[in-house]
Design a protein that fits this description.
302 residues; mainly alpha; elongated
Length: 302
Amino acid sequence: MAGRAPELLLGNRPTAAADVWALACVLYFILTGDTSPYAPSGVKLPEPLLNELIAAGDLDIATLEWALGEGADLGDLRGRGGAQAREAAAAQLLHGMLLRDPEARPSAAEVGEHPLWWTPEHAMQELLGLVADMKEEPRIKRMAEEDATLRVEVEPILGLGAEGSWRGRVPEALLQEKEQYSYYNTGRMADLLRFVRNVYEHPPEAGSDAWNSVKLTTSSSGRSHRGGHSRRLLTEGDHASWKKAVAYFIMNNCVPELPLIVYKWKAVCKSNGYVAAIDEGRGGMDDFGSSIISNLAPLQFE
């Protein structure tokens, strides 16, 4: 790996933001095996040319997504959703960490809180909090229904395509069962979050078509545990096991983009001053994200 943060190349004094930039380069190398996000894959550029590209901030998110999609090994991130979603989350995080303006980069704490590091259970807890806030806070509810920024920033993450509906992303039998009790507009992101919340909190009846449509797993590897032990536990009323199983099912099989959707939605809430959606006491980063920050903290400048 080579290169220094843009502000250092321009002669400015180092700050903690330079550490965040350097960490992004390390993460990029770990995920792709390439030495620099500013160089073509497999190409080692002369240092003067590389420094010129870094100083110019010659990097875009599409380049990161392509590199991560082609060569990244994201399997060790403990099964945090599908590969495509994790590539998108990694690209979004690295793009922010590599911004030319040091003041625009995320802080070390924000890096550790990014959904790239979330477990499915953590993502589900964040979603539950956001759905509760949409119900209790009128401004957040109104934003969920009307805000153009939300549609621009969040809805494209899901990639609904021309039909503009998330219906095909979830088992039809499961959706039909939930539609018996509540109406869902499958063209609205808020209704998707509400649907996921209801599936998580209110499991389908054992033995029903909806029950059988759920691919049970409590494993981060995504391996299915149909029948036998898992279904017997859930049938006997092990609600905690059901919640864990459905969290992995949603993240691995239906909406792997969910952590990034919730994260971006909360960011929009925060930027609009709707602090009810950003609850620092709810959840927090898991051990993996926390370990990154604890290791990075000693490197920061005063």
